[in-house]
Design a protein that fits this description.
Layout: H1 3-9, H2 15-43, H3 47-52, H4 56-64, E1 72-73, H5 76-86, H6 95-117, H7 129-146, H8 148-152, H9 162-171, H10 178-197, H11 203-217, H12 245-277, H13 284-299, E2 307-308, H14 310-318, H15 325-340, H16 350-362, H17 367-376, H18 378-394, H19 396-416, E3 420-425, E4 432-434, E5 447-452, H20 461-473, E6 481-485, H21 494-509, E7 513-517, H22 521-530, H23 532-536, E8 541-542, H24 545-554, H25 559-565
Parallel strand pairs: 5-6, 6-7, 7-8
Antiparallel strand pairs: 1-2, 3-4, 3-5
Helix pairs in contact: 2-5, 2-11, 2-14, 2-15, 2-16, 4-13, 4-15, 5-12, 6-12, 6-13, 7-16, 7-17, 7-18, 7-19, 10-11, 10-16, 12-14, 17-18, 18-19, 20-21
Length: 577
């Protein structure tokens, strides 16, 4: 339950490893501070709350997380989700908004812990990758548009939709503050160049320091350049948020979205580190608990929602992090900053924070992923694009809901119309393959071989029955045998059984014998319990198509093979079986 303790109990930790973790932790710490401030503003809360989210959440994940390189904290996608969800209830940067953002973190953490206890980590698989890609790409564009106000130095009114903000900026671009715009453009260029030079170099922090000094020396804040202003020093105090039923209901869409998107993103990053380093094994349910407990306890100390960061995780790994001790070092850097450095944040221009955000999120727009899906799987491309457009036009929660719903509709549609093939013999072999791929193969008039490539259940049972009858209707002369290859039929329900019985009755009436081949264990058990095995007869079950063809052509039988083909598991089955 506390993976970090295993390092010390098993003597896996030494001074050399600690040095590597310390260097990585310090490197991530100096990068995290400006990002935490920037993402807090993106979220709609004062900068100090972004720093609060880098204290206890990092410590708790370090103790309970199973990824040795994952770096958690404020991230752009989570920030825009909080802003989108909470801004429908309260105005950003108000006390009520901050309170709701902290409550959102608490509720998200509680939900993740409950999911961990119930071992429901698998539920994140319900969100298809094209939905995630479409959402993140759209969220990146929404974030970019949201930063135009600070980047251009404009006073944008409180507009709800991104296209309204974009339209306002375009119409009023002539009124931009030139100094603010130059700071933003210079910061973007400098950060990109420094990142290309050395990814582990704290380019964002360096540019933040430079622009802050320039703003202070030349008093640019008196020339219209927006600055952060006062940032309170000291550590967060303990406070239990006041929650009522109406608040929970109002925040539920945002909580559900942050829970799933945050976990999917964090696990994706963690898995990439697991595959690269191969020095640890991820435990999904433990990860849910670690992320959840980090949010719950963090929220009691005024932390807003946090998730895994790809950029900081990559830097943490490149800097040599070997264990989660690096996160403890990172947290200590933030701890010292809160105690001694917050007074230095006063003159930080908001334009440089916008630049930090813009550089971070531009790479989230997945152009290559869209091209790849268009070539690879058109329906996945459609899901991605509709999620993308839905998120842009209707908002993040609705966009994700539309994407998930559409992916399930596609899944149900193709599951209700599974691949069914007529198999024919490849000459001079015992192999039987799809006639559409081997049109010159031998088709027998005596038998028809059909392979069904899916589970047989209520959603596709009628399609299966209709397809079998269509194959038979195409024959000028009805075959004597229908050989059903069940090799790929991994499950069957009561509706499927009912249709299978209908097909058997239909075949019997037209004097066609049904032969079943390659039925896997769980389906054999089901057919035995239903009585269908005995009804059809043991001598009509075969292990291979060749055995069934031998029976159809020459009445070759083999009792051992028949018995193996209907082997029945009499062990205790699960309740749902």
């Amino acid at each position: 339950m506390v993976p970090i303790l295993q390092l010390f109990f098993t003597n896996q930790y030494n001074l050399s490893t600690f040095k590597k973790d310390s260097i990585a932790g310090i490197t991530v710490g100096v990068i995290l501070i400006p990002q935490a401030i920037a993402y807090a503003l993106l979220m709609g809360v004062p900068p100090i709350y972004g720093l609060y989210s880098c204290l206890l959440p990092l410590v708790l994940y370090a103790f309970f997380g199973t990824s040795r390189q994952l770096s958690i904290g404020p991230v752009a996608v989570t920030a825009i989700l909080v802003m989108s969800g909470v801004s429908q209830i309260a105005d950003p940067f108000t006390d009520r908004f901050v309170e709701l953002a902290i409550i959102t973190s608490l509720l998200t953490g509680v939900l993740q812990i409950v999911m961990s206890v119930l071992r429901m980590g698998f539920l994140v698989n319900l969100i298809a990758q094209p939905v995630i890609s479409g959402f993140i790409s759209a969220a990146a564009i929404l974030i970019i548009i949201s930063q135009l106000e600070e980047g251009f130095g404009l006073d944008v009114p409180n507009l709800r939709h991104a296209y309204e903000i974009l339209g306002y900026v375009i119409q009023n671009i002539a009124h931009s503050n030139l100094i603010t715009l130059l700071i933003c453009l210079f910061s973007i260029l400098a950060i990109v160049l420094l990142k290309r030079w050395r990814s582990s170099f704290p380019g964002a922090l360096s540019i933040l320091v430079v622009t802050t000094l320039v703003t202070y020396v030349f008093k640019l804040h008196d020339k219209g350049v927006a600055i952060i202003g006062d940032v309170p020093s000291g550590l967060p105090s303990f406070d239990i948020p006041s929650i009522d039923y109406d608040t929970i209901v109002a925040l539920l869409p945002a909580v559900l979205t942050i829970t799933f998107i945050g976990y999917v993103g964090s696990m994706g990053i963690a898995k990439s580190m697991e595959m690269k380093n191969r020095d640890h094994v991820l435990k999904p349910n433990q990860e849910l608990f670690a992320l959840g407990i980090a949010k719950v306890v963090g929220s009691l100390f005024q932390a807003v929602p946090s998730s895994g960061s790809y950029s900081r995780t990559a830097i943490n790994d490149e800097a040599g992090a070997k264990t989660t001790i690096s996160s403890l070092v990172t947290s200590s850097i933030v701890f010292l900053s809160l105690l001694f450095l917050t007074s230095l944040f006063y003159y930080i221009p908001k334009a440089v924070l916008s630049a930090i955000i813009l550089v971070s999120v531009f790479g989230l727009i997945n152009f290559n992923g869209a091209k790849h899906l268009f070539k690879l799987k058109r329906r996945d491309f459609i899901v991605m694009m509709i999620t993308f457009l839905g998120t842009l036009i209707l908002g993040v929660e609705r966009g994700i809901f539309i994407g998930v719903l559409l992916s399930f509709l596609f899944l149900q549609y193709y599951s209700s119309r599974p691949h069914i093939a007529e198999l024919v013999n490849i000459p001079e072999t015992l192999y039987y393959r799809n006639i559409d791929r081997f049109p010159n193969a031998i088709q027998s008039k005596k038998y028809l071989i059909i392979r069904f490539d899916n589970q047989l259940y209520f959603g596709n049972a009628s399609y299966f029955k209709d397809t079998v009858q269509q194959y038979l209707s195409k024959r000028t002369e009805l075959p004597k045998f229908l050989i059903l290859d069940n090799t790929n039929m991994h499950d069957i329900d009561s509706t499927g059984l009912h249709v299978l019985e209908d097909i058997y009755e239909y075949l019997t009436n037209v004097h066609i014998q049904l032969l079943i081949v390659g039925t896997i264990g769980p389906v054999r058990d089901f057919l035995k319990r239903s009585g269908f095995t005995d009804k059809l007869g043991i001598d009509h079950y075969f292990l291979t198509i060749a055995d069934a063809v031998g029976y159809a052509e020459n009445k070759i039988t083999h009792e051992v093979k028949h018995e193996a083909a209907v082997q029945f598991n009499q062990k205790r089955r699960s309740f749902l079986d």
